[in-house]
Structures are given as structure tokens and as C-alpha cells.
Specification:
Layout lengths: L4 E6 L7 H16 L3 E6 L5 H12 L5 H25 L4 E4 L6 E3 L8 E4 L2 H8 L3 E5 L2 E3 L5 E3 L4 H12 L4 E6 L4 E2 L11 E2 L1 E2 L1 H9 L7 H10 L3 E5 L7 E3 L10 E14 L3 H11 L5 E4 L3 E7 H11 L3 E13 L7 H9 L7 E5 L2 E6 L4 H28 L1
Parallel strand pairs: 1-2, 1-9, 2-6, 3-6, 9-13, 12-14
Antiparallel strand pairs: 4-5, 7-8, 10-11, 13-14, 15-17, 15-18, 16-17, 18-20, 19-20
Helix pairs in contact: 1-3, 2-3, 5-7, 6-7, 8-9
């Protein structure tokens, strides 16, 4: 009978030191001793990608994309080798593989590649020989044989795509948090950990700023029905599981997006702006049309690039933050949300409604307070009322 297969991914904080790599090894060994086949995906040690990027910029402020991929991919290779060494030292045969050796083939886009396919033959052979396989995340190889990288957070995508290709029973993402919360617990102290969250809600949370999972990894897991679990490297609780298609809560979570910019341009400049953004690879978060001008929301770092070529046409601009409520019935909460924030002197600059999310644009200094106000009303109080009703029903 074939053993269950688990793919485990460990982020940069988890492998940030030799001591922490030993902690990671214990999680892997526990999974192996429980009777599982184990494939591990690792990120670069915390701070290493930034260090390598800084080195590149000392050579060239705009490094060649191909060579940047060659450089940045080295970070994950350090982690995979050190972890494989640790496992072998502890008596558990392990083999490290680069993205190319693991058969991860991408398109030709450097610095932000997309995985096209994975040839699992070598991994399958190593698993059959009872090895633990340690794969460098964030990287692959294109059809020309060039190293490519998947963009920030790409190790999550590596792990989930491998899990899908290997038909793994579960993909476990180990981080420095112990699960998925209804809001960032560093902002909302009484945020609740979710035991289970559906794929559509998790995708929308990730899209709107929740950083616990990389958006493409959620999309791939949903598309291929790969159960996705978020756990802490430094804790032993079961974390949070992402699975299923149906949201159960009116509001299941609140996501924050900082470092955003709201710019105003003349209406006739909109098409020109869109063309420039397309050429620069800039995503427009929102376009708000007024009678004579247009407001556009985009990321702060994207604005820095846009300003170089479009500065003369920007009437004014300012920093903003986005607050997004995700759930079943958020489209009916616009007036109430604005009223709740108005009571605490927070102005809502703009509102955007999607089928499963309500996004409010607010001043950066107000976003934390706004998150607490909405979380208290829609999640904390709502769950308390729901609990009381259930207790009353159960008698």
C-alpha cells in the first residue's frame, strides 16, 4: 500500500539559522515517522534575498533580469543544502534538488515566472528509495535552460504546484504564525484563528493584502483541489486548513493593504495611463471615475516607476491604505461600514464592491483603528451573538 505523501514548505524565518533548521528537521522527521513520504520546499534564509538584491544594485541599479535570477536563486540553494545535511546527520536519508533538478519548468519571464509543468520522475525515484526530498523554492528553469524565479513569495507556489503534480495528500505551509486569522493579530488583538477557511475566501483575502499565503499558491491549490494547511514552525497546533468551495460566514475576515497610492489625472489621460502601466507591468487596483477627472489606486512602489514617465499628467497624489471585508454578504454592508467609521471620525475616501469583498480606501493613519472597529462589529460581536443563539437552541 502506497504511503501518504505530504509536501511541507518552510519560509525564510523558519530556516533563518542553523538552530531553526534543526527545528524544521524535527517537523520533517515527525511527519516521516508518522508513515508519510515527505517532500520539502524551502525559501532562502531570512534577509538573504534582500542581501543578494543589495549586492546586485551595487553593481547596477537596474540589474539584467536573467543574471538577477541566477543570483537570487542561490539563496534557496543554501537553505536546501543545509537542511538536507541536517537530515542526513540525524540519520534520515535526504537529497536536495534545485528547481531545475526537480523538473520545474517555467515560462521565459525572468523575475516573475509562471510554472508551466513539472517532471516528477526524479522526485518519484527518490521517494521510492525512501529519501526525504528537499527542493529549492522560488525557482525553476525555462525551455532555454535559463534559471528563472517566481517572484516574492514564490516558494509557496513551488510547494503547492509540486503537491498538485505529485498528487500529495496535503500541502503544509510552515510560517512564523500558527494559522490563518480573521485579521492580522498584530493589528487586531482579538483576531480569531480559523480552523477552516474556504478557497474563494482565502483567495480574496490573499488578493486584498493578507500575506499569510502567496496568491498564486491559493489559486493553484483551489484549481487542483490540493488541501492547504498553514502551521507554525515554532508551535505544535494543527494550524488552519484551506479547503472547500463555500464560505460559511457573512464576514469571515478583514485584510489590510498598506503602501498604496491614490493619484488623480485628467479623464482624457486614462487610456495613456493604462498603456504605460501595461508596458511597465503595473497593476491598477482601482479606477474611480469622476465628472472631469479620474482617481487611480496602485501600489506605492509601482507609483515610483510610473512617476518617472507620467509625472507631468498627475494632478495630485497621496498615500492611502485599503481595508477589505471578505465574506458572503459584504455587498450589503457599505452604508453601515461607512457609518461605523464615521462615528470614530474616520473618513472613507472610496468604496469598491466585489462579489465576495468590500474594500474601503482610508488614510494610512486610520487603517488600524478602522480594522479594529469593523472586526469588532462584524466578526467578534457577530460570533458572540451566534454562540449565544446556539447555546440557547441547544438548551
Amino acid at each position: 500500500m502506497k504511503k501518504p505523501l505530504i509536501v511541507q514548505k518552510f519560509g525564510g524565518t523558519s530556516v533563518g539559522s542553523i538552530e531553526r533548521i534543526h527545528t524544521v528537521a524535527k517537523h520533517i522527521i515527525n511527519a516521516k515517522n508518522d508513515g508519510n513520504q515527505v517532500v520539502v520546499v524551502v525559501s532562502a534564509m531570512s534577509g538573504e534575498t534582500n542581501r543578494l538584491m543589495d549586492l546586485a544594485k551595487q553593481v547596477d541599479s537596474v540589474p539584467t533580469a536573467r543574471e538577477l535570477d541566477v543570483l537570487l536563486s542561490a539563496g534557496e540553494q543554501v537553505s536546501m543544502a543545509l537542511l538536507a545535511m541536517t537530515l542526513n546527520k540525524l540519520g534520515y536519508p535526504a537529497r536536495s534538488l534545485t528547481g531545475a533538478q526537480a523538473g520545474i519548468v517555467t515560462d521565459n519571464v525572468h523575475n516573475d515566472a509562471t510554472i508551466k509543468q513539472i517532471d516528477t520522475q526524479l522526485i518519484d525515484e527518490l521517494l521510492a528509495e525512501d529519501h526525504i526530498v528537499v527542493v529549492a523554492g522560488f525557482q525553476g528553469i525555462n525551455e532555454k535552460g535559463d534559471i528563472t524565479t517566481l517572484g516574492r513569495g514564490g516558494s509557496d507556489t513551488s510547494a503547492v504546484t509540486l503537491a498538485g503534480a505529485l498528487q500529495a495528500d496535503e500541502c503544509q505551509i510552515f510560517t512564523d504564525v500558527d494559522g490563518i486569522y480573521t485579521c492580522d493579530p498584530r493589528v487586531v488583538a482579538n483576531a480569531k484563528k480559523l480552523e477552516v477557511i474556504d478557497f474563494p475566501s482565502m483567495e480574496e483575502m490573499a488578493r486584498k493584502g493578507a500575506k499569510v499565503l502567496h496568491l498564486p499558491s491559493v489559486q493553484y491549490a483551489w484549481q487542483h483541489n490540493v488541501p492547504l494547511r498553514v502551521l507554525s514552525t515554532f508551535d505544535t497546533n494543527p494550524g488552519s486548513l484551506v479547503k472547500g468551495e463555500e464560505c460559511q460566514d457573512a464576514v469571515c475576515g478583514i485584510a489590510l493593504q498598506r503602501d498604496m497610492r491614490l493619484i488623480s489625472i485628467e479623464k482624457e489621460s486614462l487610456e495613456s495611463l493604462k498603456k504605460q502601466c501595461l508596458m511597465l507591468g503595473i497593476h491598477l487596483w482601482n479606477v474611480i471615475e469622476h465628472a472631469e477627472w479620474v482617481d487611480v489606486v496602485l501600489k506605492e512602489d509601482a507609483y515610483s516607476k510610473l512617476e518617472l514617465v507620467f509625472k507631468d499628467k498627475i494632478r495630485n497624489s497621496g498615500s492611502v491604505s485599503l481595508l477589505t471585508a471578505v465574506g458572503l454578504h459584504v455587498e450589503g454592508l457599505v452604508e453601515q461600514s461607512c457609518a461605523l467609521l464615521s462615528e470614530v471620525a474616520i473618513d472613507v475616501i472610496h468604496v469598491s464592491i466585489n462579489p465576495q469583498s468590500l474594500t474601503l480606501v482610508v488614510e494610512p493613519e486610520s487603517v488600524d483603528k478602522a480594522a479594529n472597529v469593523l472586526h469588532e462589529h462584524y466578526i467578534t460581536s457577530a460570533k458572540a451573538i451566534d454562540c449565544l443563539e446556539k447555546h440557547a437552541f441547544w438548551g
